[in-house]
């Protein structure tokens, strides 16, 4: 019965809608008068109730020949969706997304199906790494061999690396593409030695057309793994096979790495990935939302994006939490409503007093003289209070010193401003957002200078 319902609904609904909301639900109980559907995704529950109920009712009525009442039940963890907390409410677990082709594709089980080029936002921070990765996928073993991707945690190294794998596999379905973590490489090696089976280990890895090794920094100090990897690398490289490595730091900063490996790692291209700027972070959130067929108000995107600066995984996590909260609470998606669940860890970067002043000047359109002067015009005095608060957040200056920077104000004035801003930050979402954006600017300016 349910498969009939699915068949009909599939015809009536758009594919993304069907995949996202219907396919993830299962019938739990069917009586003469009622059908209970179960979903593991609280967002699906809301969505189905809000928009698709009449269609489902109609189809079920049609098939059963009599009307039934339909209930949707949210059961956390049902049908395997969301085995951990983050995934539980993750509305993007749907494996087929709107813009991906329908045709069967070459798949590689080592690779996460979400880590494809089409899902990656390209910004100034990863443009070069992205371009190099594309080039490598299109013509492996040529220009950039090895390609060494480096960047901080959660900036997309694994995503980019696997995108190379997917794309290569798509271009050449017979290619041997291996993705391994350094840990797995090490474990495989240990197992091979223990089973006296080194030859099959070597045969395996040396058969790769493209070898993707993630988190290669973990090879540090592992002498035997380094030895073996050195030979694997050489064999592949000499045969014109592509090697791609990812690391949280450049080769010459990996401690206890054999000199000869360090030089091998550096002989192709080292492409780094930086933290994304605000605009790129917003684009990343927008893209996630698109895959979800979800409309996010611009302020919400901006708010989340300005709260999470240097780790895209955390940025995504924040969106997931926000969506989950909103859907469970049944609230509209607004900055005010999501603020309580985000508790943004505004990452503070030490900045110079000048950097703070110039960020305030640029963003709020007041002059530095105004900030240091004694005008009581409202926009100026608010900007001054904001400036003092940010100075307190981003520098080590004492209250009296901050007073001096602002043209010789008393330290009690500085204290008052800081307290007031702290209060507004907690109680006035608009002010909270302004402060966060300013912090973000200061962080970016200071990071850029470093
Ligand atoms: P790393 O390996 O550098 O720690 P990941 O590749 O695991 O980081 O990325 C963390 C998360 O952020 C992943 O879910 C990934 O899809 C996402 N992500 C990273 N960079 C981008 C990007 N440029 N556009 C869209 N999503 C991204
Ligand atoms: Mg990674």
Automatic annotation (TrEMBL):
<feature type="binding site">
    <location>
        <position position="158"/>
    </location>
    <ligand>
        <name>ATP</name>
    </ligand>
</feature>
<dbReference type="Pfam" id="PF11638">
    <property type="entry name" value="DnaA_N"/>
</dbReference>
<comment type="similarity">
    <text>Belongs to the DnaA family.</text>
</comment>
<dbReference type="GO" id="GO:0005524">
    <property type="term" value="F:ATP binding"/>
</dbReference>
<keyword id="KW-0446">Lipid-binding</keyword>
<dbReference type="GO" id="GO:0005737">
    <property type="term" value="C:cytoplasm"/>
</dbReference>
<comment type="function">
    <text>Plays an essential role in the initiation and regulation of chromosomal replication. ATP-DnaA binds to the origin of replication (oriC) to initiate formation of the DNA replication initiation complex once per cell cycle. Binds the DnaA box (a 9 base pair repeat at the origin) and separates the double-stranded (ds)DNA. Forms a right-handed helical filament on oriC DNA; dsDNA binds to the exterior of the filament while single-stranded (ss)DNA is stabiized in the filament's interior.</text>
</comment>
<dbReference type="GO" id="GO:0005886">
    <property type="term" value="C:plasma membrane"/>
</dbReference>
<dbReference type="InterPro" id="IPR013159">
    <property type="entry name" value="DnaA_C"/>
</dbReference>
<keyword id="KW-0067">ATP-binding</keyword>
<dbReference type="InterPro" id="IPR001957">
    <property type="entry name" value="Chromosome_initiator_DnaA"/>
</dbReference>
<dbReference type="InterPro" id="IPR024633">
    <property type="entry name" value="DnaA_N_dom"/>
</dbReference>
<feature type="binding site">
    <location>
        <position position="154"/>
    </location>
    <ligand>
        <name>ATP</name>
    </ligand>
</feature>
<feature type="domain" description="Chromosomal replication initiator DnaA C-terminal">
    <location>
        <begin position="352"/>
        <end position="421"/>
    </location>
</feature>
<dbReference type="Pfam" id="PF08299">
    <property type="entry name" value="Bac_DnaA_C"/>
</dbReference>
<dbReference type="InterPro" id="IPR038454">
    <property type="entry name" value="DnaA_N_sf"/>
</dbReference>
<dbReference type="InterPro" id="IPR018312">
    <property type="entry name" value="Chromosome_initiator_DnaA_CS"/>
</dbReference>
<dbReference type="GO" id="GO:0006275">
    <property type="term" value="P:regulation of DNA replication"/>
</dbReference>
<dbReference type="GO" id="GO:0003688">
    <property type="term" value="F:DNA replication origin binding"/>
</dbReference>
<keyword id="KW-0963">Cytoplasm</keyword>
<dbReference type="InterPro" id="IPR013317">
    <property type="entry name" value="DnaA_dom"/>
</dbReference>
<protein>
    <recommendedName>
        <fullName>Chromosomal replication initiator protein DnaA</fullName>
    </recommendedName>
</protein>
<dbReference type="InterPro" id="IPR003593">
    <property type="entry name" value="AAA+_ATPase"/>
</dbReference>
<feature type="binding site">
    <location>
        <position position="156"/>
    </location>
    <ligand>
        <name>ATP</name>
    </ligand>
</feature>
<dbReference type="InterPro" id="IPR027417">
    <property type="entry name" value="P-loop_NTPase"/>
</dbReference>
<feature type="binding site">
    <location>
        <position position="157"/>
    </location>
    <ligand>
        <name>ATP</name>
    </ligand>
</feature>
<keyword id="KW-0238">DNA-binding</keyword>
<dbReference type="InterPro" id="IPR020591">
    <property type="entry name" value="Chromosome_initiator_DnaA-like"/>
</dbReference>
<dbReference type="GO" id="GO:0006270">
    <property type="term" value="P:DNA replication initiation"/>
</dbReference>
<feature type="region of interest" description="Domain III, AAA+ region">
    <location>
        <begin position="110"/>
        <end position="326"/>
    </location>
</feature>
<dbReference type="InterPro" id="IPR010921">
    <property type="entry name" value="Trp_repressor/repl_initiator"/>
</dbReference>
<feature type="domain" description="AAA+ ATPase">
    <location>
        <begin position="143"/>
        <end position="271"/>
    </location>
</feature>
<feature type="region of interest" description="Domain IV, binds dsDNA">
    <location>
        <begin position="327"/>
        <end position="450"/>
    </location>
</feature>
<dbReference type="Pfam" id="PF00308">
    <property type="entry name" value="Bac_DnaA"/>
</dbReference>
<dbReference type="GO" id="GO:0008289">
    <property type="term" value="F:lipid binding"/>
</dbReference>
<comment type="subunit">
    <text>Oligomerizes as a right-handed, spiral filament on DNA at oriC.</text>
</comment>
<feature type="region of interest" description="Domain I, interacts with DnaA modulators">
    <location>
        <begin position="1"/>
        <end position="96"/>
    </location>
</feature>
<keyword id="KW-0547">Nucleotide-binding</keyword>
<keyword id="KW-0235">DNA replication</keyword>
């Amino acid at each position: 019965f349910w498969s009939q319902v699915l068949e009909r609904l599939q015809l009536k609904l758009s594919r993304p809608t069907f995949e996202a909301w219907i396919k993830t639900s299962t019938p739990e109980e069917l009586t003469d008068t009622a059908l209970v559907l179960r979903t593991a995704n609280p967002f699906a529950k809301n969505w189905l109730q809000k928009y698709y109920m009449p269609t489902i009712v109609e189809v079920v009525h049609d098939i059963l020949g009599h009307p039934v009442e339909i209930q949707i039940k949210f059961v956390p963890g049902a049908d395997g969706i969301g085995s951990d907390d983050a995934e539980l409410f993750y509305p993007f677990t749907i494996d087929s997304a709107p813009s991906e082709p329908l045709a069967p594709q070459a798949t590689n089980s080592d690779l996460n199906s979400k880590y494809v080029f089409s899902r990656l936002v390209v910004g100034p921070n990863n443009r070069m790494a992205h371009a190099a990765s594309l080039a490598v996928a299109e013509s492996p073993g040529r220009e950039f061999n090895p390609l060494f991707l480096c960047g901080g945690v959660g900036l997309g190294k694994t995503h980019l690396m696997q995108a190379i794998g997917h794309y290569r596999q798509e271009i050449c379905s017979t290619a041997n593409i291996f993705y391994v973590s350094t840990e797995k490489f090490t474990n495989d090696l240990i197992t091979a030695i223990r089973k006296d089976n080194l030859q099959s280990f070597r045969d395996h890895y040396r058969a790769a057309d493209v070898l993707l090794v993630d988190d290669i920094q973990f090879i540090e100090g592992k002498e035997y793994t380094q030895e073996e990897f050195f030979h694997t690398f050489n064999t592949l490289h000499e045969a014109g096979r592509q090697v791609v490595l990812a690391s949280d730091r450049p080769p010459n900063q990996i401690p206890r790495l054999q000199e000869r490996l360090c030089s091998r790692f550096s002989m192709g291209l080292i492409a780094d990935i930086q933290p994304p700027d605000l605009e790129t972070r917003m684009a990343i959130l927008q893209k996630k939302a698109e895959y979800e067929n979800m409309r996010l108000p611009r302020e919400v995107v901006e708010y989340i994006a300005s709260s999470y600066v240097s780790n895209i995984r955390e940025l995504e996590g924040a969106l997931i939490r926000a969506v989950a909260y909103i859907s469970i609470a049944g609230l509209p998606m607004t900055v005010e409503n999501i603020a309580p669940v985000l508790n943004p860890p505004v990452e503070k970067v030490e900045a110079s007093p000048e950097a703070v002043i110039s960020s305030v000047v640029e963003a709020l359109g007041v002059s530095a003289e105004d900030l240091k002067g004694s005008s009581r015009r409202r926009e100026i005095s608010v900007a001054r209070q904001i400036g003092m608060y940010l100075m307190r957040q981003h520098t080590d200056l004492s209250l009296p010193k901050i007073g001096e920077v602002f043209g010789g104000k008393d330290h009690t004035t500085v204290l008052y401003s800081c307290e007031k801003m702290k209060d507004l930050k907690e109680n006035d979402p608009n002010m909270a957002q302004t402060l966060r954006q300013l912090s973000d600017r200061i962080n970016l300016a200071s990071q850029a200078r470093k």
